[in-house]
Design brief:
2 copies of one chain form a homodimer. With 338 residues, the first copy, chain A, is α/β, with parallel strands linked by helices. In chain A, 43% of the residues lie in helices and 16% in strands. In chain A, the strands form 4 sheets. Chain A has a 6-stranded parallel β-sheet with strand order 2-1-5-6-7-13, sandwiched between helices. The first copy, chain A, has a 4-stranded parallel β-sheet with strand order 9-8-10-11, sandwiched between helices. In chain A, strands 3-4 form a two-stranded antiparallel sheet. Chain A binds a DNA duplex (30 and 30 nucleotides) through helix 2 and helix 4.
Chain lengths: 338, 338
DNA sequence: CTCCTCTGCGTAATCGTTTAAGTGATACAT
DNA sequence: ATGTATCACTTAAACGATTACGCAGAGGAG
């Protein structure tokens, strides 16, 4: 490959001059710079990121940590969308992305070690077990870090507004006359906590009391568990008129249970999802759900991280909240007074 | 960070000795090696990938090229699954992944330039416009390359067995008595060509003739276009008993059209998808489809690439074909003789 | 005793860049 | 004439590792 040396030789200048010309340093004559730039272009010169990184200690590489042993890697729509946001934003700023895992070469190490090994300039922690000591080690390191959907002290985080999302959904259901609402929520993570808080707050607002047996723990992204729980809910002597599901995808399981019970949506029972994945608009009836701006979660995270990398001073502790939008569909029907 | 120098100093040996000890070179005394390894461990030493790459010209990084302007990046389930396969296989071998795009720093370049800039050891080209001159430039470069679902001369490629998949699907439909089969296919890429070949071949096998107006070009992964075309097919005077869709996801559009026409699946009309995404099993009726082993596509591609990187000599031109499996569901019903 | 072969380690160059410090030339002010 | 500032470069070290080569000492063979 053509290096700075080749250009230097052919231009009759030193490598330092070439480097400076290429980097727009001021102490290079206009004519010399032109010559160098032209030749570089002609030879198809491309800087060597490796050498540059070694010298400057800046790799223009951001790590992305994502661990989701339960629901199978990148194929998880939530994460792949977030990742796409991170990726496109990083790309804009000239950064590349490296997935952080626990292997380097044939050895097992920690996430932090992997980051150091690759010399990433910062990390986005997108979905992980935030109690994992290896994750906290990373969070407490001196690397710039942005977390998504989880708050750490002294760390920037980008959150989806789960509380508001839930509140809006409850309000919508209430506006359609529903007072008997059940909820199947996901595993008890921070996200779930926020959603439940929003749920209860809005219920209170409308004077809705939710019996305990209508608050059920399911599994995110898992239609099977939702199908089972929905079936149980429908079998209760007192039946809810509206069921909230952990997310749009798991709703498919709920739908199956409802249909199997010989009931119709939304005539006999109403449904509410969460996420706003494309599927929810395509299926019919169109699902009422909260559309998280998942990609924006990624772009903002990347943007904040890069800002932190490039201007370590100016960053004040930042807690960006990404709001989504209500996407109302035919799954929540007007309650019939009979 | 602790470097090889620190270890050398504290062990009273040269950096060369440390390097050799760490890399398992034979010309180091057993006792010295022990001391070095211990200390390295104690100090939490981690090699610097950047420095190593600069010296050895091996980055242990593979590029992944994926361009899909139509259907929105990583969120495309097919690709995110392939990517996950690539990622996990690469990880096993101690490689990291870099997305190849056309930016380096603030400048626009070619894919090949980006690869050179990052010094990737090889590239997997997973989904791209294979006619794009920038893609062919990359394919014709001296970098190890593996392509997915597309064949280039002198390049290793990993293919999903689209022909066989289609044949099996037609056979299955035929076995259920269908003779009036329509097909909505995707854009005319190599993949589509193969599927159509398989389709026609199997039709011939069963003496099925397909009128031209039943062979329609739709768009992959696009329920809307399928909904439109399905509607048109249903409105024809002579109606097919079975419709093949470009993929499982677009089938949702087809389903909507069928339902809107007041027809039932599979009683009135049968449906066949392609891909075998989780959705197809969850929805009901369960969709008959060809389950591509998409993740395997990724793992094999990564495996072949790494083999090519590490043993340039031993690789003979390789054309791996990944076979999927028939996933038969209730969407293809027995034809009723009336 | 000499010669040779191993063994175990050190020396130093090198990968491609960046950058602090130095240098020589010219110009200008004093 | 002398000092000083500016400009446009060069020199050389450094980033952290790898590796060809050299070399001293031990041990064995002759």
């Amino acid at each position: 490959m053509v290096s700075i040396k080749d250009i230097a030789k052919r231009c009759g200048v030193s490598t330092a001059t070439v480097s400076k010309a290429l980097n727009g340093q001021p102490d290079i004559g206009e004519e010399t710079r032109e010559r160098i730039l032209h030749l570089a272009d002609e030879l198809g010169y491309m800087a060597n990121a490796t050498a540059r990184a070694l010298k400057t200690n800046r790799s223009y590489n951001v790590g992305v940590l994502f661990v989701d042993p339960m629901h199978g890697g990148l194929a998880h729509e939530f994460f792949s969308t977030v990742l796409d946001g991170i990726r496109s934003e990083a790309e804009k700023h000239g950064y590349d992305i490296t997935f952080i895992n626990r292997n380097v070469g044939s050895r097992q190490t920690s996430y932090l070690q992997h980051c150091r090994y690759r010399g990433v300039d910062g990390v986005v922690i997108a979905s992980a077990d935030f109690n994992d000591p290896m994750v906290t080690e990373l969070v407490q390191s001196d690397l710039p870090v942005v977390t998504i959907d989880h708050i750490f002290n002294n760390r920037i985080s980008v959150m989806s507004d789960n509380m508001q999302g839930m509140e809006e959904l409850v309000r919508y259901a209430a506006s359609k006359g529903h007072r008997k609402i059940a909820i199947i929520h996901g595993e008890l993570t921070g996200v779930t906590q926020n959603r439940l808080t929003g749920f209860h707050r809005a219920c209170e607002e409308f004077g809705i009391t939710v019996p305990e047996e209508w608050i059920r723990e399911g599994v995110f992204h898992d239609p099977a568990s939702c199908q089972r729980i929905t079936k149980e809910l429908l079998a209760m002597p007192e039946r809810p008129t509206c069921i909230f599901f952990p997310d749009d995808y798991s709703w498919i399981g709920g739908y199956n249970a409802i249909r199997d019970a010989g009931l119709k949506v939304p005539q006999d029972i109403s449904a509410v999802g969460y996420d706003g994945i494309p599927l929810s608009r395509i299926m019919s009836p169109v699902l009422t759900t909260w559309r998280q701006d998942t990609e924006k979660l990624g772009t903002i995270a990347a943007d904040r991280l890069i800002e932190q990398i490039e201007h370590p001073r100016t960053v004040i502790l930042d807690r960006e909240i990404v709001t989504g939008s209500l996407q109302s569909g035919g799954t929540v029907g007007e309650i019939q007074t009979r």
